[in-house]
Amino acid sequence: MSGVQVYYGTLVHSLSLKELETIEQGVIVVEDGIITQVERNVKDVDTFLTTLNLTNYKLHRLEPKQFLLPGLVDTHAHAPQYVFSGSGMDLQLLEWLNKHVFPCESAFKNVQHAEEAYTKVVSRFLKNGTTTCSWFATIHLAACQRLVDVVEKLGQRAYIGKVNMDQNSPDYYIETTQDSLDNTKAFIEYTQQKKNKLVTPVITPRFAIACSSTLMKGLSALAKEYNVPIQTHLCENPDEISFTRSLFPDSSSYTAIYDDHGLLGPNSYMAHCVHMTDSEIDLLASTNTGIAHCANSNFSLHSGLCDVRRFMSKGVKVGLGTDVAGGFAPSIIDAMRSSFFASKTIKFLQRDQYNNNNYDYLQPAELIYLATLGGAHVLGLQDTIGSFVPGKAFDALWIDPATSQGTVDLMGQEDLSQIVEKFLYTGSDRNILHVYVNGRRVSGSA
Ligand SMILES: [Zn+2]
User: Fold this and answer.
1) Is there a single domain that holds both residue 79 and residue 173?
2) How far is the CA of 323 from the centre of ligand 1 (A)?
3) Domain encompassing residue 87
């Protein structure tokens, strides 16, 4: 869709963690994918449009009860693992990696298999409203390049990482340190030469267990040389943490291992962070490193409960991640619900153990913030996406809670905030009529 597009109806977006703004009779003007104007309380859109002196535009009117929501941001997912999602939920992390993940990922040396799988997973994520995703791919350069091609074709905004693994990995799925660095460099150059502003390469050491000190230092240097972000896993599971600490005894904590190798910073984000000491959280805060909260995965792989309040109270940036396929659901709507349950569970545990019922579990406005603007902050995209503000890209979902094809039942008496909550807790992809990335319609049920 090119030219000027005008959307008229109800707009819902986050202003901050606790402030969800609902705008009735709102107008968004989009030119070449970028929001140029947002107006509130416009009684007569046709009269309003005559004041804009637009020569050529298309007006899209939302029906009553429909609303626009910023596109959802998944800050952590593994594209190849979608192949076996829903399997292995009886295992913990390290067993699960050996039984399911490594055999699955090693098959992506077959580029045709990679293209088929990546087309399915990116299409599914878009259908579920994930307009921006930070992907882990595999160690294979050609298959990683194919993921970039698929994402570009399907129109998602994405961070894509070639995974690095040069130690403590199976014989059939490992690379030398030099190959890992060379192929990462080639991958970054392949992606950057496309000059597609929607697709960004991201440095992606799998986790410290699978990466030598030399590799991690080399990756840090590449991140600086090419000015690209860094993603990895941190403090997911107790066995993983103790094994990691045994491999890097000179570092004072798991988090310090990454800091000692130059992998923390304002362009870095860590998945999970379930089991963290206060000083490790302080280290994330002082380096301005973000986290991807993957509640479904943390339940499914028995990793534990991540208390994101601890991070947010220290000023750490927090977004949501599906962690497909540690998490079984390819949906940030599910991630909001899983985060809600994790937060409620922490409240129950605190009440039971300490008779302390003051824990402030996550509210609907906060869940929507984490799924949109919060994730944008984690990825350094807060000036580009996450809310409806002039200058940002039009990454948006056109939600229809009332459609008979959907999974929400409206009874007629709901106010707007109740309609939004009904979508949050009972809605699905079938209530998402249109999915837009940078102004282009890329998916939807209509
Ligand atoms: Zn992961």
Assistant:
1) yes
2) 5
3) 72-378
Phi–psi pair at 197, nearest 5 degrees = -70, -10
Cα 99 to averaged position of ligand 1 atoms, centre (Å): 15
Q: Let me know whether 275 and 331 are in one domain.
A: yes
If we measure between CA atoms, which residue out of 404, 408, 402, 406 comes closest to residue 426? Answer: 408
* CA 132 to ligand 1 center in whole angstroms: 16
**249 and 262 assigned to the same domain:** yes
Find the 446 Cα to ligand 1 centroid distance in Å: 32
Q: Residue 430 gets which letter from DSSP?
A: G
CA of 236 to the centre of ligand 1 (A): 9
Q: Bridge partners of 414?
A: none
Residues 310-319 have pLDDT tens digits of 999 999 999 9
> Which residues fall within 8 angstroms of residue 64, CB to CB, at 6 or more apart?
none
CATH number for the domain harbouring residue 19: 2.30.40.10
pLDDT tens for residues 294-342?
999 999 999 999 999 999 999 999 999 999 999 999 999 999 999 999 9
Q: Provide the token pair at 82.
A: 């979608």
Q: 132, 71 in Cβ contact below 8 A?
A: yes
Closest CA to 390 of 8, 24, 38: 38
Compute the distance between CA of residue 422 and CA of residue 420 in angstroms, rounded to an integer: 5
- Same structural domain for residues 144 and 293? yes
- The residue type at 191: T
Amino acid, single-letter form, for residue 389: V
How many domains is the chain partitioned into structurally?
2
Dist CA 150 CA 147 (whole Å):
5
